[in-house]
Amino acid sequence: MIIAFSMTSVMVYGLLLFSAGLGIRLLIGRRRFNRRGLGGAQFYDNYWSAIFISTLEGLFMLFSAGCIVAGLLLCLVEILNTR
Q1: Which UniProt keywords apply (predicted)?
Q2: Distance between CA atoms of 73 and 1, rounded to whole angstroms?
Q3: Which residue(s) pair with 4 in the sheet?
Q4: 2-6, 7-11, 46-50, 65-69: range with lowest mean pLDDT
Q5: How far apart are CA 34 and CA 23, in angstroms?
Q6: Where are the domains of the chain?
Q7: Could you tell me if 57 and 3 are in contact, meaning their C-beta atoms sit under 8 angstroms apart?
Q8: pLDDT of 2 over the 70 cut
Q9: CA 10 to CA 17: how far, in whole Å?
Q10: What are the angstrom distances between the C-alpha of 80 and each of 43, 59, 69, 73?
């Protein structure tokens, strides 16, 4: 069974939020990967940059999780409303 549906603005916004959330997570993950040394620990220039960067990355990860959930909810609501 093939399900065909038209893309509404709500669906587009949902997909944009979802992809933005995934993009932010991939960017932060790549930066964390590039900071790791041979032992697996992350290396920073000094203590304050470690505190600042870790806090900022944590906030961005929370924001990206919210974007992913909101995007999925928008898509789900739009699919259920068009039935």
Answers
A1: Membrane, Transmembrane, Transmembrane helix
A2: 24
A3: none
A4: 2-6
A5: 17
A6: 10-35+45-81
A7: no
A8: no
A9: 11
A10: 47, 32, 16, 10
Cβ pair 68, 18 in contact under 8 A: yes
3-state secondary structure the chain: CCCCCCCCHHHHHHHHHHHHHHHHHHHHHHHHHHHECCCCCECCCCHHHHHHHHHHHHHHHHHHHHHHHHHHHHHHHHHHHCC
Quickly state the pLDDT bin for 5 (edges 50, 70, 90): low
Q: Identity (one letter) of the amino acid at 3?
A: I
Residue type, 30: R
Taking only the tens place, the pLDDT of each residue in 6-43 is 778 999 999 999 999 999 999 999 999 999 989 989 89
Location of structure tokens 């065909």:
4
